[in-house]
């Protein structure tokens, strides 16, 4: 079984046939599956799609049960939580639907944790962290693009000189570098390479 384009979040099962891991879809398993859009819906009240998964949460006045259903709770109504609540040893606590969210100072609403600035994000050396509400993802550094090379996805240098995305002067030569490019004025011209 060989898959020319590779299977990003899955495994190769036959000639160019990918079997995606749960939570992913597409010919090369490179797309997140929006479980919240599936029928029947996985959550009774509200659903938040996440990368490769999803989270359920309830309307105010309801408690999230382990099976994703929402049970009416008089105590939750009184607390007025943004995303439902849970009762622990008779004490009511508001919930946040994702590990990338934390309870705000009022103990009722959820605020985003910026994993990129807090250092909680795990991105490989050639990728940069992009914060999202409740989570984050890793993107190739500027000057690099995601390509399928020798059996796996990797961030590969973009040759700006070949793709014609450089900003060199018409009287300058473009020289590709790792992650960037340089401009050098042609013979008989002088300047920075951006101005000759």
Overview of the molecule:
- This protein has 196 residues and is mainly β.
- Among the domains are: 56-112, Laminin, CATH 2.10.25; 115-155, Laminin; 158-195, Ribbon (Laminin).
- It has helices at residues 74-79, 115-118, 160-163, and strands at residues 10-14, 17-20, 24-25, 31-32, 46-50, 53-57, 62-64, 70-72, 85-88, 91-94, 101-103, 110-112, 127-132, 135-140, 144-149, 152-157, 172-177, 180-185.
- The strands form 9 sheets. The chain has a two-stranded antiparallel sheet with strand order 1-2.
- Strand 17 (172-177) and strand 18 (180-185) form a beta hairpin.
- The mean pLDDT is 84.
The helix-and-strand class reads: mainly beta
Spatial gap, N to C terminus: 54 Å
Helical amount: under 10%
Look up the CATH topology of the domain at 56-112: Laminin
Alpha plus pi helix count: 3
Write the layout of secondary structure elements.
Blueprint: E1 10-14, E2 17-20, E3 24-25, E4 31-32, E5 46-50, E6 53-57, E7 62-64, E8 70-72, H1 74-79, E9 85-88, E10 91-94, E11 101-103, E12 110-112, H2 115-118, E13 127-132, E14 135-140, E15 144-149, E16 152-157, H3 160-163, E17 172-177, E18 180-185
């Amino acid at each position: 079984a060989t898959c020319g384009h590779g299977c990003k979040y899955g495994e190769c099962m036959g000639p160019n046939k990918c079997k995606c891991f749960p939570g992913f879809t597409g010919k090369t398993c490179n797309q997140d599956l929006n479980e919240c859009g599936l029928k029947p819906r996985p959550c009774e009240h509200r659903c938040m799609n996440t990368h490769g998964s999803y989270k359920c949460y309830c309307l105010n006045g309801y408690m999230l049960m382990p099976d994703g259903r929402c049970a009416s709770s008089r105590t939750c109504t009184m607390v007025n939580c943004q995303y439902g609540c849970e009762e622990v040893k008779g004490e009511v606590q508001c919930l946040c639907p994702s590990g990338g969210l934390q309870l705000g100072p009022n103990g009722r609403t959820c605020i985003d944790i910026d994993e990129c600035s807090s250092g909680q994000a795990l991105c490989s050396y050639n990728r940069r962290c992009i914060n999202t509400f409740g989570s984050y993802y890793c993107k190739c550094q500027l000057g690099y693009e995601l390509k399928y090379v020798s059996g796996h996805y990797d961030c590969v240098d973009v040759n700006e000189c070949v793709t014609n995305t450089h900003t060199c002067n018409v009287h300058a030569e473009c020289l590709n570098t790792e992650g960037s490019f340089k401009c050098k004025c042609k013979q008989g011209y002088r300047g920075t390479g951006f101005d000759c």
